[in-house]
Write a structure and sequence with these properties.
37 helices; two-stranded antiparallel ribbon; mainly alpha; elongated
């Protein structure tokens, strides 16, 4: 290097250029002459290797191009065939006779020349044959020796040889084998030939059931392993192993009749998990690959297109399984199980990936199965749609489902199952503002920090560098822009949601009004009235009068069942309590019907109807309390508390909570609680159906004293609270977790349907048996005996002997008594510590207390135990 450096320095001096500049000139010349350093050569080789490497997508594109070229070439051959085929007769007819004779003579001369040439060749070959057949010896030891692979030793390489077999001997061996085979064939008797023919006619050997089951189990195990390996390999590197996904989708087309249903189920469930992990949370359309793109974007587009196409084929296969079952082609139990699995897969995809593609196709495939005769299938789809409605905040997916249900019901002319309309009760049709408030409350609850997080945030802010004035101004402007952007986004979301909710409400109420007015199917009346009772606050004011007239006509006809009439009453009072206050309608008949039929409710099958009764009473007596007379209020309170004796504890809690709200809204109804009977006239007549004429003010709430001895603690609390006078403060007030709860929430919280008691019942106190108590006392004695020694027992016996009355040893006699003084003297004379040292084995103490260097410490410990 020093020598080259010196040469460069000399050249630089001659030309009058700096050394570094001269070095750069030399590098440029070297690059022009294509002379590279070893490092540059290595880098160029690596670059060439990377260029030669091709991704899966490029290889696939090249194969597609080759296929296209082949197809084009074949098309060209097919497009330009020969118009007519020319035969030899046509050629002869085209020639003149002189030309034809000339061609025949020439052909004869050629044949003679060829025969002469062949004869000359055969003579020459016969002369050359003996020379060619002579054996050539390439080995120095001779032609019979064949060389083998040598092996290496310490002394050197050792050659190996074997004898070569003659061609004649090999041919003789082959001939002998053939002769033996012919003899064996000749020895076969005609009886054996007959047996063979019979076996061939009979066909394959029959297998037992156990063998068939074993073969099927083996096949299933292999298919399981294959499906699992394909799924795992694809999830490891999805963009590079697309063929694994395509092979996994092909397993859905299994055609082996012994395992086809089971393998399809396994493949469908594994593909469901694969798509759960690979599908994105946004929607996209198929990409156009004809335009010029970067290499990375092209690979991404190919991957996304492949995922979209495979997802489409997966959904088509699931739909095919469902069609095969519904078209009555295959109604066997395995086919039903496969249909249930495909419904489950489609439902799960709709729940988790409703923002991705083909959502409308999944909804269109699932809606008809709510009307299926099979209860298992219909209940499964109903549950999926209910959870979808509860979780859908935007409302776009709910709108699509409602449209499909409306189309299906009208197409079947309303002759459908009740489940199609019961699903609509789970819709989140509320005001948009209330939904926004719910979302804000959830976000605020998430943003709430704990005490430690607040301290950590303070420390981080203190460590941050302080902002300058310019940065602070910029930050304030940015924050204002962010707030404006959020406000605009909220407004846009409100507009979109309100538009979607209005469409949903229009479709739902269109179905309800059609069923109530035209009555195409009387089985749907109950669900329609229940839906109206839930969503009647959203009905337009223009339809109030018509709707109330229809409901009044239904009540007068008397064709409604008890549950349907309760929903009808609830609908009427929700309309009258909200926007229908302007209407001049006398709801007296609804009051009397509800009062007369309240006691039909029991703690059995119809206890769930108590919800609609309590909601109706809240709207009648609390919300519309100014329009109700005192006699009517008192009659309903008496009937309500009498009803609480017939219900389970959750129904009793809900009824008592409703009675408490009515007492607070109407203080004059406390006449029922007071013991003083002044002012009351007449006798209470519970059998009278009119609440105003039953003289309920002369009755008393004796049922509350029974409820104070109820088996449920919460019922006791409510009963005692109402007896005291429903105080808001002081003694007898309810805890806040009960006083501020809604009636519906109380009913659901204390519901025993889940076989759980709320609050939990304390476990009873366990009393041990005689055997257990005896064993415990024996153990205590053994522990005491463990710490006593022979010396201690001897000393105690001597004390008892010295005293005349051994039973009064541990008594507390008067001071100065001879027994007392003698016992005290004897107790002081005894040396227990010395006795312990005499009687206890020191080796045992060391064994029990390891690693004790000082013996006195261990003895002190033993003494304290005694």
């Amino acid at each position: 290097m020093a020598k080259r450096g010196s040469k460069l320095a000399k050249k630089a001096k001659k030309k009058g250029v700096a050394h570094s500049k001269m070095k750069n000139i030399q590098n440029l010349k070297r690059i022009k002459n294509k002379e590279f350093t070893p490092a540059e050569r290595k880098a160029r080789k690596e670059a060439r290797r990377e260029k030669r490497k091709m991704t899966y997508a490029e290889l696939r594109a090249r194969k597609l191009k080759e296929l296209q070229r082949k197809m084009e070439f074949e098309d060209e051959n097919e497009l330009h065939p020969l118009s007519t085929e020319i035969t030899g007769d046509d050629m002869i007819s085209m020639l003149e006779p002189d030309e034809l004779n000339y061609l025949v003579e020439q052909n004869k001369n050629k044949d003679n020349d060829e025969e002469e040439g062949q004869q000359n060749k055969t003579e020459e070959e016969e002369e050359e044959k003996p020379f060619e057949l002579e054996e050539r010896s390439f080995h120095p030891l001779g032609n019979d020796i064949k060389s083998l692979l040598p092996y290496k030793t310490k002394s050197g390489i050792v050659e190996r040889y074997t004898k070569r077999e003659d061609v004649k001997q090999v041919s003789k061996k082959k001939a002998k084998k053939e002769e033996i085979q012919e003899e064996m064939e000749m020895e076969i008797t005609p009886e054996e030939e007959g047996d063979k023919d019979s076996e061939a006619k009979q066909g394959p050997v029959e297998k037992s059931v156990i063998e068939l089951m074993a073969e099927r189990q083996l096949k299933l195990e292999r298919k399981k392993v294959a499906i699992g390996c394909l799924a795992v390999n694809f999830l490891e590197m999805p963009q590079e192993r697309l063929h694994c996904l395509s092979n996994l989708i092909h397993t859905l087309e299994e055609k082996d009749p012994s395992i086809c249903y089971t393998v399809r189920k396994y493949a469908a469930m594994s593909l469901l998990e694969v798509f759960h992990k690979t599908l994105p949370s946004y929607h996209y359309e198929p990409h156009d690959l004809t335009q010029k793109l970067k290499k990375e974007t092209k690979e991404q587009y190919l991957y996304e297109n492949f995922i979209l196409k495979s997802y489409q084929t997966y959904l088509k296969e699931l739909e095919r399984f469902l069609k095969e079952y519904t078209d009555k082609r295959d109604k066997t139990p395995p086919a039903k199980q496969l249909a249930l699995v495909s419904l489950k897969c489609m439902g799960e995809l709709l729940m988790k990936h409703n923002c991705f593609a083909y959502t409308n196709n999944i909804i269109a495939a699932l809606v008809p199965f709510m009307n299926n005769r099979d209860d298992e299938m219909s209940s499964m789809i109903v549950n999926y749609f209910r959870t979808l409605f509860k979780g859908d905040i935007k409302g776009d997916v709910s709108l699509e489902v409602v449209k499909r249900i409306d189309h299906f019901i009208r197409k079947r002319s309303f002759h459908v199952r009740e489940e199609l309309l019961s699903v609509l009760l789970s819709l989140r049709i509320k005001n948009v503002k209330s939904l926004d408030e719910e979302l804000e409350a959830k976000n605020i609850a998430k943003k709430k920090l704990t005490h430690t997080e607040k301290l950590m945030r303070k420390l981080m802010e203190e460590k941050k560098p302080k902002k300058s004035n310019k940065e602070a101004k910029r930050f304030r402007k940015f924050r204002k822009l962010e707030e404006q952007r959020k406000e605009q986004k909220i407004k846009r979301d409100e507009e979109v949601r309100s538009a979607q909710h209005t469409q949903i409400v229009e479709i739902v109420f269109g179905l309800y009004f059609h069923i109530l007015k035209r009555r195409p199917n009387n089985k749907l009346n109950g669900i329609v009235l229940e839906g109206l009772a839930k969503f009647s606050h959203l009905v337009n004011v223009e339809f109030f009068s018509d709707l109330l007239n229809v409901l009044g006509g239904l009540m007068e006809e008397g064709t409604l069942k008890f549950r349907e009439s309760l929903h009808c009453i609830q609908t009427v009072f929700t309309i009258l309590s909200d926007q229908g206050e302007v209407l001049t309608l006398d709801p007296g008949r609804f009051y009397s019907y509800l009062y007369a039929n309240m006691l039909k409710l029991t703690g059995g099958d119809n206890q769930d109807d108590i919800k609609s009764v309590l909601q109706s009473l809240m709207q009648m007596l609390v919300i519309r309390g100014r329009r109700v007379t005192a006699a009517r209020v008192i009659a309903f309170i008496k009937r309500l508390i009498t009803l609480s004796l017939n219900l389970l504890h959750n129904g009793a809690v809900a009824t008592l909570a409703t009675a408490r709200y009515i007492f607070v809204a109407h203080p004059s109804s406390e006449v029922l609680i007071e013991v003083d009977e002044e002012g009351s006239s007449g006798v209470y007549l519970p059998e009278v159906e009119e609440p105003e004429h039953c003289n309920a003010s002369s009755a008393s709430l004796w049922e509350l004293h029974l409820l104070t001895r109820h088996y449920h603690s919460t019922v006791k609390q409510f009963a005692n609270h109402i007896i005291v006078g429903s105080p808001l403060q002081g003694d007898g007030k309810l805890p806040p977790n009960l006083g501020k709860r809604r009636v519906e929430d109380l009913y659901d919280d204390f519901d025993p349907a889940t076989m759980r008691f709320n609050p939990t019942v304390p476990s009873p106190q366990q009393f041990p048996s005689k055997k257990i108590s005896e064993t415990r006392s024996n153990l205590k004695r053994q522990k005491f005996n463990h710490f006593t020694t022979e010396f201690m027992s001897h000393e105690v016996q001597s004390i008892f002997k010295k005293n005349e009355d051994p039973f009064d040893v541990f008594s507390d006699p008067e001071p100065g008594n001879k027994y007392h003084n003698g016992l005290k003297k004897n107790m002081t004379d005894t040396n227990y510590f010395g006795g312990l040292l005499k009687n206890m084995t020191l080796s045992k103490i060391k064994a029990d207390l390891p690693d004790c260097e000082d013996l006195t410490d261990s003895l002190v410990n033993v003494d304290t135990k005694t």
